[in-house]
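Attaching the record inline, Q. Sequence:
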Amino acid sequence: MSAPTLSIENLVKVFGDVEAVRGVSLSISPGEVVAFLGPNGAGKTTTLDIVLGLSKPTSGAVALFGAAPRRAIKAGRVSAVLQTGGLLLDHTVENLVRMVADTFPNPLPWREVMDRTNLNEIAKRRVRKCSGGEQQRVRMALALLPDPSLIVLDEPTTGMDVTARRRFWDSMHAEAERGKTIVFATHYLAEAEMYAERTVIMNRGKIVADGPTNEIRGSFGAQTVTGRFPTKEAAKAAQASIGGRLEETSVSVTGPDVLALNRAMLDLPEIIGISVTDVSLEEAFEELTGE
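Structure, as predicted:
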């Protein structure tokens, strides 16, 4: 049986009087796409820094592919995409990718990497002239050149518009299908919900939830029943009767007994439609972290 891509056991990191990471343990398998969520100060960035060999743990153990992180990084099996830095701004996109490719002993073909990251359309543009989202795509290309098995992303789609964000995640899932493991920290809760099969939520240095994203979202038992009405006035009257949240011509009520909520909605006058949804990842995040 092969070793997991990432293994963390009882990880602790202390800065002075502050215990930033408190007994974190988890294992990530090849090909997983895992979102790391948590409010500022939750410990997720510190944990990823230790994984990348940028910081040493106070206690506990971290292994990449069954070995010390620095060994895997030196072998080119790990790449990271950070929010800033790492770019030579006076080069064109194509020249930078070609130049960095020459620094690796067995890189992927640079033209293939340009194609994977949708950079051909801006190949002749100087990096300093690229938008923030375009520079993130350049960082992604540089990270792919050594053909890593693990890619760690820190807020990877900051500065990207909706279309660029979707294209970015399409390319990331293509990498996961090639067997690469993707671990990303994000503040976009909707992004984690859409693109990560697994979500790890940290708060105050500990993991407070870890599992399939849809199970974390649905584990709270509550569902939201939304009733639609023909007019704003009818919706207001319904809210006065049943409570809940009013939005234009609809009223939404959340609770554990979805059948009772449905019956109450059906008894309201002028109702023209009902829908039922699970709690969102954002609601789960707020309940778990108190943020």
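The first helix runs from residue 44 to 51. The mean pLDDT is 87.

More tomorrow.
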